[in-house]
């Protein structure tokens, strides 16, 4: 695809690594040799951590929940704009308190119920359309029965004609 009059540098656009890429070692910013060394270091570190895991279970849980970056490790900062995940427990929820549906949701439910009611009446043959369909089906059945009788009579007449012709 053409890029227009001005072209970028030969290296292309800048790529910024996300935190997940950096932790996974797939970051484009670091050379491969560094990734290999880091992987070896991580493997050694996991072996050491497994040994000390039993001793510091409580400490590791606190550190794993909130990993502080930069100056946050040194200073306690409370950002009011930062979203804090609120976990609700089952005992805190009110089972008796029902949430009111929005107008669109309520209309959608009413529409579904009306459709289900109409389909039930349709199956029972109580709607105008169902009556017309049943009348049409009865007419078609009657026509088919008449056509079948007519074919049988014609066949019987041909058979009788063949018998008369042989005699």
Explained architecture:
Residues 1-167 are annotated as: Disordered. Residues 65-74, 89-167 have a biased composition (Basic and acidic residues). Residues 43-64 have a biased composition (Acidic residues). The protein has helices at 19-24, 32-52, 57-65, 103-124, 128-166. The protein has a domain at 125-166. It is elongated. The termini are far apart. The chain is mainly α and 167 residues long. It is built from five helices and no strands.
Main sheet makeup? none
The number of distinct β-strands equals 0
Order of helices and strands: HHHHH
| N- and C-termini, Cα separation | 91 Å
Strand content: under 5%
Q: If you average the pLDDT, what whole number results?
A: 77
Structural class: mainly alpha
User: Helix content range of the residues, please?
Assistant: 55-70%
Provide a count of the helices.
5
Low-pLDDT residue spans: 60-64
What is the radius of gyration computed over CA atoms, rounded to a whole number of angstroms? 40 Å
Large-scale geometry: elongated
Keywords:
5 helices; Casein kinase substrate phosphoprotein PP28 domain-containing protein; 167 residues; HAP28; mainly alpha; Casein_kinase_sb_PP28
Task: Please render the helix and strand layout as text.
Blueprint: H1 19-24, H2 32-52, H3 57-65, H4 103-124, H5 128-166
Question: Quick summary of this structure?
Answer:
With 167 residues, the chain is an all-alpha fold.
């Amino acid at each position: 695809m053409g890029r227009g009059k001005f072209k970028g540098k030969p290296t292309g656009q800048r790529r910024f690594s996300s935190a997940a890429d950096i932790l996974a070692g797939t970051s484009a910013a670091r050379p491969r040799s560094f990734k290999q060394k880091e992987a070896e270091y991580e493997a050694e570190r996991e072996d050491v951590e497994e040994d000390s895991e039993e001793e510091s279970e409580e400490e590791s849980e606190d550190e794993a929940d909130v990993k502080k970056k930069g100056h946050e490790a040194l200073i306690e900062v409370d950002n009011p704009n930062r979203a804090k995940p609120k976990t609700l427990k089952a005992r805190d929820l009110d089972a008796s308190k029902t949430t009111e549906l929005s107008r669109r949701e309520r209309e959608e439910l009413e529409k579904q119920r009306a459709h289900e009611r109409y389909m039930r009446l349709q199956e029972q043959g109580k709607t105008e359309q169902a009556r017309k369909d049943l009348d049409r089906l009865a007419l078609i059945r009657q026509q088919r029965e008449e056509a079948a009788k007519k074919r049988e009579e014609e066949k019987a007449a041909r058979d009788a004609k063949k018998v008369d012709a042989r005699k």
